[in-house]
Write a structure and sequence with these properties.
Strand 2 and strand 3 form a beta hairpin. It is globular, with a radius of gyration of 21 Å. The chain starts with 17 loop residues before the first helix and ends in a 15-residue tail after the last helix. The strands form three sheets. The protein has a five-stranded antiparallel β-sheet, covered by helices on one side. The chain has a three-stranded antiparallel β-sheet with strand order 6-8-9, with helices on one face. By secondary structure, it is α+β, with helices and mostly antiparallel strands. Helix 4 packs parallel to helix 7, helix 5 runs antiparallel to helix 7 and helix 5 packs parallel to helix 9. The chain has nine helices and ten strands. It folds into two domains: about 90 residues, Phosphorylase Kinase, domain 1 (2-Layer Sandwich); about 200 residues, Transferase(Phosphotransferase) domain 1 (Transferase(Phosphotransferase), domain 1). The longest helix has 25 residues.
């Protein structure tokens, strides 16, 4: 299967017209009502599709050439495995042949049951405990076997490679900030590598990988985990640190409450707390490179008009300098962690 090719004038998604989307869904035996709502997804294209004789579906059309078929199927398998163990993850629908990945007009796509819910707001300790229990179960299952095809979250993949792209292949960084960015990221990557060394050996397990509040939908006081598109191998704390916010004392209280639920199902290595600010910094570096790599997609300049101007990069330099200071502070403390190493 050859996906649509990109060139300076057109983009692979230009041919993903409404009739193509609806035809793809009907190809799987569903009768569309004509309702089609584009959802907030930029890496892929995701739509809410009305079905005549049943509940709506979510149709996800994968960005051409991003993942291999094997990587996508491993994502599907992980979500299905979680669902089978009654961990509330939204798994793809399988057809009569148990296939979850389909192709239509050069686009690979998957159908999901429509999952209603509200975006998580962690307002109480009980919310953190409940979420901790679900993530503990997710990680216990994630540690039971390894990914074969999905990528790893490492300083190389989320740090060195994004920085190299920004400095050598992208023209997004203003010239007057290039050397400052180069020097700062060199220092940051050294500190990040040191944090990973301090936390070694870092156990890598199967993760959700992008566990921010937007990917947690709450229904009847229970979270449902959605969008496993970024699932990968990495340290368990990657799925925990994005749940923490506020001042240090607030974060330590939130962490303790999450881990109260988490450790009922899965052990947690306190050494990984040394990776929190390292992972936060890697996410910042990776995010800028992701925007730069996708800038030829018309959806990106429209959705992120502030990216690439002088002010954006000036703010990034300031934010990364703050991270440089945080990387040199002691890690968050957890009373259940048995001290630091």
């Amino acid at each position: 299967m050859n996906p649509p090719s990109a060139d300076p004038v057109t983009h692979p998604y230009d041919a993903l017209l409404p009739e193509v989307i609806l035809d793809a869904v009907e190809q799987q035996g569903f009768r569309c009502s004509g309702e089609l709502l584009a959802l907030n997804s930029y890496e892929n294209r995701v739509y809410r599709i009305g079905i005549e004789d049943g509940p709506p579906l979510a149709a996800k059309f994968y960005r051409p050439e991003r993942w291999s078929d094997a990587q996508i199927l491993e994502e599907h398998g992980f979500a299905a495995e979680l669902h089978e163990h009654e961990i509330p993850a939204v798994a793809p629908l399988a057809d009569a042949n148990d296939a979850t990945l389909h192709e239509h007009d050069g686009y690979r796509y998957t159908l999901f049951p429509w999952q209603p819910g509200r975006v998580a707001e962690l307002n109480t300790d009980e919310h953190y405990r409940v979420l901790g229990r679900y993530l503990g179960r997710l990680h216990a299952l994630g540690a039971a076997r390894s990914f074969v095809h999905r990528p790893r979250l490492t300083p190389q993949t989320f740090g060195h490679e994004p920085v190299q792209y920004l400095l050598q292949e992208s023209d997004q960084i203003p010239r007057h900030l290039t050397e400052a960015y180069r020097s700062l990221t060199e220092q940051l990557l050294t500190l990040i590598e040191q944090r990973f060394t301090d936390a070694a050996p870092v156990r890598e397990i199967r993760l959700h990988g992008d566990c921010h509040l937007g990917n947690l939908l709450w229904i009847d006081e229970a979270p449902h985990i959605v969008d496993f598109d970024d699932c990968r191998s990495g340290p368990a704390v990657q799925d925990l640190w994005m749940l923490l916010s506020g001042e240090r004392g607030e974060q330590e209280h939130q962490l303790a409450t999450v881990l109260e639920g988490y450790t009922a199902f899965c052990s947690f290595d306190a050494r990984e707390l040394q990776l929190v600010e390292a992972l936060r910094t890697l996410r910042l570096l990776h995010y800028s490179a992701w925007l730069a790599q996708r800038w030829s997609d018309p959806a990106f300049p429209q959705a992120f008009p502030w990216f690439g101007n002088d002010r954006y990069w000036e703010e990034q330099v300031l934010i990364l300098r703050e991270q440089q200071a945080l990387l040199q502070e002691p890690p968050l403390q957890w009373s259940g962690g048995g001290g630091y190493f």
